[in-house]
Please model this.
Amino acid sequence: MEYFPAALEKLVEQFARLPGIGGKSAQRLAFHVLSLTDAEAQEFADAIVEAKKKVTCCPVCRNLTDGGLCPICASPKRDERVVCVVADARDVAAIERSREYTGRYHVLHGVISPMNHIGPDDLEITSLVERVAAGGIDEVIMATNPDTEGEATAMYLARLLRPFDVKVTRLAYGIPVGGHLEFADDATLMRALEGRREI
Model:
């Protein structure tokens, strides 16, 4: 038995397709959209359509942009000799929040994941190799997540970039600030010891 009109059910289904949105959250979002004025609802719909039309990938780093080079590639203040490789454009935002990194990026748009049928050809790997082969890059930082797919992707890229005269590094992992050693797992403690530095 259907509780809601078909149009509302369809809206709930569309929200439920978003990552991290379950059935109850999808219902809440759908009811919120229904509570908007016509002008607000149109503005919301227009924002989605406009983003789909205008947001593209930067021709250099494959980060998201609204046409031409992204602001990071266009900035003369960024160090073009250092490239940080990330899986997703959201990772660029996370690293930028630290305000410590001053190099450039390369966004893969995913990681190698055989279980999900994602291979190297499905990612922005060729463009990365072409960037490094062109010269002018001294270091490539692998900043993929420290999970199985992220590690496999980082190792694959490191092997691909080995023939070029470029230093390939990996982000250090370990005990989080404010964390306690007693709660750290073995792999985290091992990484923390491997990545130790002089103070």
Q: What stands out?
A: The helical segments are 6-16, 23-35, 38-54, 71-74, 89-97, 125-133, 148-161, 186-194. Residues 15 and 127 are 33 Å apart (CA to CA). DSSP finds eight helices and six strands in the chain. The two ends are 66 Å apart (CA to CA).
